Write a sequence for this structure.
């Protein structure tokens, strides 16, 4: 399968009109009325079906992935993420913040904990739990998965639960590492949001350190 395809055989994707979360479905409908040319649907995973690295985000941004249909594409958060992936040789092509820019990922895949855009970028606990039925097979179905990078606390919690871990024993913290019962290592990172980067909570060197460690863990470091 073409690595540029947003979906992979390893991923079970929700249907375009997924009804499981009524609030998210209603918000999605509102956006379709207001912006008929946007993607406005559950955003599929993007990347390499043979990935050793899975990056778990929170949810599509309203004017980012919800508009473009590709994770972290079209809003500020994607700039640091895709620049960092390029730095570590995990992508090919040039990121131009558009799903038709030809960018592909090598050895990496990006999947959100919640597939639909939530109002105010805040999914409810019930919505997060409901969407885990898509996150779990997306991660467990990757045959070569070695490392998971969780972007933010919600992504951390969802990844831990999807891969059989226990949250009281696995606390979120930037650069914290956890061995998951299913085998992969989990590395936490602050989310690469505009707020976190503008306030200095997350810097480019801090973010790069996460991927440096992921590469080391891939090779048993």
């Amino acid at each position: 399968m073409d690595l540029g395809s947003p979906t992979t055989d390893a991923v079970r994707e929700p249907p375009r009109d997924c009804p499981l979360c009524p609030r998210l479905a209603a918000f999605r409908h509102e956006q379709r009325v207001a912006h008929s040319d946007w993607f406005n649907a559950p955003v599929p995973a993007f990347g390499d079906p043979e990935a050793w690295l899975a990056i778990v985000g929170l949810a599509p941004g309203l004017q980012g992935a919800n508009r473009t249909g590709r994770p972290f594409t079209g809003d500020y958060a994607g700039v640091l993420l895709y620049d960092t992936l390029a730095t570590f040789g995990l992508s090919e092509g040039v990121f131009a913040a558009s799903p038709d820019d030809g960018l592909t990922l090598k050895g990496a895949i990006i999947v959100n904990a919640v597939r639909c855009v939530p109002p105010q970028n805040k999914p409810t606990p019930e919505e997060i739990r409901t969407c885990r039925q898509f996150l779990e097979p997306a991660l467990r179905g990757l045959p070569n998965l070695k490392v998971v990078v969780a972007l933010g606390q919600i992504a951390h919690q969802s990844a831990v639960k999807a891969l059989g871990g226990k949250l009281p024993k696995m606390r979120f913290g930037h650069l914290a590492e956890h061995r998951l019962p299913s085998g992969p290592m989990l590395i936490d990172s602050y989310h690469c949001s505009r707020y976190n980067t503008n306030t200095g909570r997350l810097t480019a060197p801090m973010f790069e350190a996460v991927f440096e460690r992921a590469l080391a863990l891939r090779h048993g470091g």
User: Anything to note?
Assistant: The longest helix spans residues 125-140. The chain is about 35% helix and 15% strand. The first strand starts at residue 46 and ends at 47.
